[in-house]
Structure formats: structure tokens, C-alpha cells
Amino acid sequence: MRSSVPPEAGTYRELSARWRALAERRGAILREIPCPGTRYGLLRVEIGEPQSPAIALAAGVHGDEPAGPWALLALVEDGMLPAAARYYIWPCTNPSGFDLKTRENERGADVNRSFDGNGATPEARVILPEDRALGFALSVDLHEDCDAAGFYCYEYGGGEIGRHAISAVRRGGYPIDPLEVTFGLAGPLDDAHCIREPGRIVADVLREVALLGGSSYSLALARGGCRHALTFETPQSLSWTDRLGMHRAAVPAAIAAVLEESDSAAL
User: N vs C: which end of the chain shows fewer Cβ within 10 Å?
Assistant: First the structure.
């Protein structure tokens, strides 16, 4: 695993340099898309088989959750993504927050509540048009939670892809959050608006949007027709290595489950 980063988990310039070098080595398509109203462009990486199922991967929408962006980089650097897919990757969807180490962007806005309509932040206004009409079989957005006791996920779109991710994390020897205490702290969902089990929250998309007062990245893709949309959360109380390890276990497992589902549907 190459992404051994802190202090205190690097800069956006360091992260983007690693992605540029990786794209050059792998022959991936990398673009830096201007983001009017900010000092940063957003990196977009495409890699994999063009005619294969489309999968969206994103991280870094909260700048104080650095394990997600570095775990996503490590997954690609180390060749851990299943080959039979086309990946559309946002390495860091809030670059200014990443550098400031804040949940919000440099304007003080929570980007992960801004994916309604055409986007309520500069970042969302770049991301949404790029992702529309791609017909994703799966999207995964990588997060961290300062209150979590173990790994957990939010799942939208039906099915049990999240359970495959949870099983992989558990096999890796990592804890799964029972979602007893953490659930009450994470908000705004309650048991009247979702199904809750250890490691997994399954919510109605429209109800959650109403409770949040805005769409997250995962909710926006689920509303746009993505077959399965998941948000992965790792506990910031654990070591850096464990936080990356959880994402490295969960993401390939979710992708493999979706690809198996796609193969079965094609028969």
C-alpha cells in the first residue's frame, strides 16, 4: 500500500500530483476541469474498459475526512479495482476544504448538501453535468466519521451490495459499527425514515433529502437513476492504516457484487 501519508494527511497539490503520475503510467484519461468561483480545478479520471458497466467513485467532499481520497488513490495505484468496469473517478470533490482541513469549502458551504438541481456550490455545478446520463451501475462515495465505532454505510437503490462490503471489512479484521450510539449522532435520519442494521443504513432517497435540506452526492446519483449508490464511513478514532484498510476492503467487494449482479442479469 503506497499511500502512507499524514502529516496531517497531505495537501491537495500532493494528492493531485500522485494522480497525474498514476494517470500517465496507466494511460488513464485525466482532466482538470475549471471550477469557476474557486481557486481550484476538479480532477476527473477515467480508467477501465469503455463498454463495461459504469462505476462512479468519489472522495473528499468533506475536507476534514482525508482517508477517503488517499484510500481511493491507493485502490487504483495498487490495482485493486476489478477490471471488468469503466471507472469515473472524482479524486477529491472539495479541494479547498481538503487544504483547509474543514468540512466545508472555502466559502463555508457544505458541498455534500449542494447536489440539488444544477448544483448549489461551484463544485456541484462542475460534477453534476459530468455524471448525468452515464447510467452508473454503482457509485461509492468515501467518507469518515469522527463518532463512529466501526465501519458502516448508507445504501440507496435496493439490493444488498452494502452487506458484501460489510462482510469484506469484517473478514479483514476491522470493527463494524453496531449503529446504536453512532446512528443517533450522525443525524438527521431516525428509525421512522430508514432501515437500520449493524453496519448499514438503508433510507428512502426523497425522505432523506427532505430531512437533510439538500442532496448529498450519493443521493443525487440515486435520484438520477444510479442502480446502487453507497456512502462508506470509516471511524476517525482508528489508525490511519486501519481507516485506509477498511475502504480498500469495502470498495472492491461492492464493485465485485455489482458486476456479478450485472453478469447474472445478462444471462
Answer: C
